[in-house]
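User: Predict structure, ligand 1,3-dihydroxyacetonephosphate.
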Amino acid sequence: MDEIVTQINRLRKERNAIILAHNYQRPEVQDIADYVGDSLGLAQTAAKSKAEIIVFCGVHFMAETAAIICPDKTVLMPDPHAGCPLANMITLRELRKLKAAHSGAVVVTYINSSAEIKAESDYCCTSSNAVKVVQSIPPGQEIIFIPDQHLGSYVQSQAGRPMILWRGYCPTHQRILSDDIKKKKSEHPKALVVVHPECSSDVVALADKVASTSGILKYCRESPAYAEASAGRPVREFIIGTEIGLLHRLQKENSDKVFMAGSDLADCPNMKLNTLEKILWSLEDMVYAVKVAPEIAAGALKSINRMLTIV
Ligand code: 13P
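Assistant: Predicted complex:
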């Protein structure tokens, strides 16, 4: 493993490359990345990077967003099969039909979507800014929110804006059940419940905090640890309702706190396709480049930029 890391380090320097990793990546991938973050942070880091090559360790829509924002850079995915099932839950045909049924409505699209869907949308958003984006839309304006029904219903409740929702969902977050959280909470009554808004509304209803992956990290970091006298050791327990890859950073950055997965089944197989070996091959062979047709990229960039100016 050390030999692989040494070779990755040599190549990333030689090629003027950076490695970006999402918070759900394997621990060893997070540990060698130049930046680890949520969807918004990754997009912003790609935009301001001076590197010529971005090795993007996440899923396809994330690398595609970086390729749209940075047309002058080469964006590589270590494994081209790392897709996002949620992003595939609405087709262009379905979106056009929905727009035709609600003419005059604006479309707010979660970043977990394809470039062609973003190009057909008015606004892009991430889990960290979806409420703000929706709140920026003039009252009375009809809004279609795609493709995640759970994020959509959370945003509806926070922004106080009824929206037309699409029925998409993240299969990994769908595996976190309210019964799992209730059971963990009964075993650890003092634990705080912190969840991602891709969880279903009955899970969100049990949460002390709902946030993006980087928002979860911030909340847990800023929650003070306290002494549990009876246990005789410092304890601050958190039940985390999101993909289990986030637990690596949480535990690494907060050694005085204890983190439990809301469900051990919340393990995204696509996120875990990226490995150190594949990162090395990616840098050696300059594969797999993510390309977006210029006219689609131009349309998608408009909705992404609208989001970036709001936040
Ligand atoms: P974040 O932007 O909160 O990291 O979420 C990305 C994602 O795909 C969650 O499943």
